[in-house]
Design a protein that fits this description.
InterPro entries: P-loop_NTPase. This is Protein ImuA. It comes from Sphingobium amiense. There is one protein chain. By secondary structure, the chain is α/β, with parallel strands linked by helices. It has 2 domains: 99 residues, Rossmann fold (3-Layer(aba) Sandwich), CATH 3.40.50; 55 residues, no CATH class. It has 4 helices and 7 strands; from the N terminus they run ββαβαββββαα.
Amino acid sequence: MEGPVFWCLRWRDLFAPALHLAGLHPDRVIYVEAGSDTNVLLAMEECLHHPGIAGVVGEVGKYSTTASKRLQLAAESSGVAAFVFRRAAKAEQVAEGTAAMTRWRITASPSEDLGLPSLGRPRWHVDLERVRGGNPHAWIVEACDATGRIALPAALVDRPAAAEDRKIVA
């Protein structure tokens, strides 16, 4: 998508050079250091009212259902994607109610074993926990390749069930 991405957070502690691993060039990011969760949510809502942006990201510790509804309405009316990250959330913590279209849980996953002491491409376990009108699902994805695309590991793409899925879609 064209345009800048606004990244709203309490304080700037994001390691920006690693954003390219998720397909986002760091030069496209405009940081909004808001100082508190409340200010992060206000900044996100304000950013969603401006045309020509690719997306809005906010990092909060927690947020209310009312704030969630306000962000969802602002995102729907602007047509801009909005993401709320609860980066410090514990894995066993149950997420509160939200008005968002989807709820995801993303955790680190072991890299592919290359057979020699080295680092493989980073991997994440991605769970779609809730989606309106759809079913939950889970994937393992790898960091961007040379083309800038997030990939499914080859073992997952080439498995027999994947071939069946492709037949069903076709």
